[in-house]
Amino acid sequence: MTGVGALAAMAFASAQWGEIGQLRWADLLLFGAVVSAAIGYAEGGLLARELGAWQTISWALVLCSPLMMLLTVLAAIQQPPSGTSAQWAAFGYLGVVSMFLGFFAWYHGLAIGPMAQVSQVQLVQPVLSICWAALLLAEQLTWTTVIGGLIVILCAASRFARGSARHERGC
Fold it and tell me: What DSSP designation does 48 have?
């Protein structure tokens, strides 16, 4: 069912351009980012079992900080950052609470549960983001978006249910 979900996502992406089967360079880059994130989450989940959740994300940030600092400086040279105090406060909240502290819970969940089952939560996140955008920001939903979202939810739920049944049987 995971493969069906991946195919549905790729079909959805190509349908957005009105050309089924035609993927753009941006779609392939996004696919590469998803694969990279999946590998990172899996490795992070395994590491969190040994180190702990907050230690895992903290060490990841420490190890990545030289590259992040370099890229930040290069980006700031190209276009100096600007924003209102409310925008900087929102940026700080998203960085500290949503990302840093959120990863404590995420890696803890990956560490204690069956990783393949817990990770299905991540599949539903983009669908929830689209739903919240429609509710809070009056974004217009197309039928292809709704159908694509339902397919993703069904695939994630199916995988989650299979994982639960296996876990109950002791497999």
Answer: H
Distant-in-sequence, close-in-space partners of 155: CB < 8 Å, separation ≥ 6: 1, 2, 4, 5, 8, 123
Residue 144 in domain: no
Write the DSSP symbol of residue 142. Answer: P
Residue 161: inside a domain: no
Q: What is the dihedral of CA 58, 93, 112, 53, to 10 degrees?
A: 10
**Domain of 61?**
53-112
Is 6 inside a domain boundary?
A: no
* Full pLDDT tens readout for the chain, 171 residues: 556 766 766 676 666 666 666 667 887 888 888 888 888 888 999 999 999 999 999 999 999 999 999 999 999 999 999 999 999 999 999 999 988 999 898 899 888 888 877 877 777 888 888 889 999 999 988 888 888 888 888 887 876 666 555 555 544
Q: Count structural domains, the chain.
A: 1
The verdict on pTM exceeding 0.85 is: no
